[in-house]
Amino acid sequence: MRDIKLHYGAGFINLRIPETNVAVFLRPGQSDDALETVGWKRILESESFLRFHHEIKDRYLCVLLGDGTRDLPLEHVLLHILPRLTTCRQVLFLVCTGTHNADTKANQHIIEQLESLISQACLSDCNIVVHDCATAHFINAGRTPQQTPVLYNSVIQDADLFLVLSDVKPHYFAGYSNPVKNFVPGLCAYSTTEKNHSL
Q1: Distance of CA 102 to the CA centre of its chain
Q2: Which own/partner contact pairs does 172-179 have at CB distance under 8 Å and 24+ positions apart?
Q3: pLDDT bucket at 37, cuts 50 / 70 / 90
């Protein structure tokens, strides 16, 4: 088990995470090359990634990506991940904008990067969608116990599995941004985000 101490409020909380679930642990202030130092080889040969690779075979995978306002070195990550997705039946890349503008130069750049990398990786049945919280077709999944309406982009409805590519960093009112953010607010209607964030 890996013991990880996280700063929380005026103190700390401790997390105990099984070693098999930890590919790399980065601390603030470390070099951007820290992930490279640990090595993609170790990550892609880890038990959890091998299990994931087995699960995606002949299935419809939805890859959730942050939009152009995020810091994740997307091209670098995709360069290593995309060649491992060739066994999928179909892949949808969804750029999760949340309430951000969908039509930006940065998001267009992400689309261009994806198209180039998809071609290099020889992925066949792929689609790229940039989420728009105002104009997308939404599915109403009801309400949470806090009465938040759960309206999500219908493009994900047929996906068998999700792969979330995300950074984790401090967030000014949520504590930490994390992969869950690619779902809410990432691919939800404005009303869902508005109510969720009001809590």
Answers
A1: 17
A2: 175/8, 179/64
A3: low
What CA–CA distance (Å, rounded) separates 55 from 143? 30
Q: State the Cα–Cα distance between residues 186 and 182, nearest whole angstrom.
A: 4
| 8-state DSSP, 100 | S
Q: Which of 47, 120, 112, 25 is nearest to 81 (CA)?
A: 120
Q: Which residue has the tokens 């009303």?
A: 191
Mean pLDDT of 9-34: 75
Residue 188 pLDDT exceeds 60: yes
**pLDDT tens digits for range 61-103:** 999 999 988 878 888 889 889 999 999 999 999 999 999 999 9
Report the C-alpha gap between 37 and 40 in whole angstroms.
9
Residue range 169-176: average pLDDT? Answer: 68
Helix H or strand E segment including 196: helix 190-198
Copy the structure tokens of residue 189: 């209607």
27, with CB counted inside 10 A (0-12, 13-18, 19+), is: exposed
Q: What is the pLDDT of residues 115-124, one digit of tens each?
A: 999 999 999 8
Neighbouring C-beta atoms of residue 120, cutoff 10 Å: 12
Beta-carbon contacts of 56 under 8 Å, excluding residues fewer than 6 positions away, are 85, 87, 88, 161, 163
